[in-house]
Amino acid sequence: MPPAVHRPLRAPPPTAPDPQGLRVLRDLLDLVLVRACGGCALPGPTPCAGCAALLRAAPMGAVRPDPCPPGLPRVTAFGRYDGPLRGLLLAHKEQGRTALAAPLGGALAAAVADLLRHGPAGPAGPAGPVVLVPVPSAPAAVRARGHDHAWRLATSAAAALPAGTRAVRLLVPARRIADQAGLSHAARAANLDGALAARGAVAGQVVVVDDVMTTGATLVEATRALRAAGSTVVGAAVVAATARSRPKGPDTARSRAKGGVRPVRGPDSGA
Ligand SMILES: [Zn+2]
Known about the structure:
Blueprint: H1 19-32, H2 49-54, E1 61-65, E2 75-80, H3 83-94, H4 101-118, E3 130-134, H5 139-145, H6 149-160, E4 166-167, E5 171-173, H7 185-192, E6 196-198, E7 205-213, H8 217-228, E8 232-241, E9 245-247, H9 253-257
Parallel strand pairs: 2-8, 3-4, 3-7, 7-8
Antiparallel strand pairs: 1-2, 1-9, 5-6
Helix pairs in contact: 4-6
This protein binds zinc ion.
Zinc ion (ZN) is lined by residues 37, 39-40, 42, 47-48, 50-51, 84.
């Protein structure tokens, strides 16, 4: 009989690194292997030169979902959730291409700057340092992905904005919510009501940030929770808005160039 081999009973299998190790491994693979661009599938780095240039373009500006949920503050988006931008966001969020956090965070920073330039904050609005608060993902989703994509984008965006801007993890899930997919606008709003809680309040101009806005219901809930705890929310900024959102405000050459439709006129709701 061969001698017994002593090994820890609960040693982790060598092929299952922890999420942090997995992230480092993915970053190394990005460096070593020739992979396709997550935005346009061109062989080479992510982002490729074309997609990197896209992320440095001027932001689309103010957007409003249609229908617009009550309580939505002013929202600005960098661009539309389609084409290369959609691919880049998915590669960052779902494929762990964490090197995309810096250029995508730069795009989010441009949307935040646009919000602060044209939003209700303005020269006569609330003062103080700008605080970016990301919409939190469910803990199980963060574990499954191996990284917190919204937090990564928020910290990258804060680093790209003027000194004094910071990201704060102020929101936490207050309860489990049902899968939003397939729910109507009203059902989404009901599903999300009370779903988030703020761990306190911060001084300054709070901007809710997220990667994508679909119906706006999540941004409404994030804004509600932050205001209930005493923070001053001046608006929200996202990297991309889905096609159901329309550019809002003056029909500028910039919004037409981005495929904008006719201007939407109407009061800000809840801002
Ligand atoms: Zn590309």
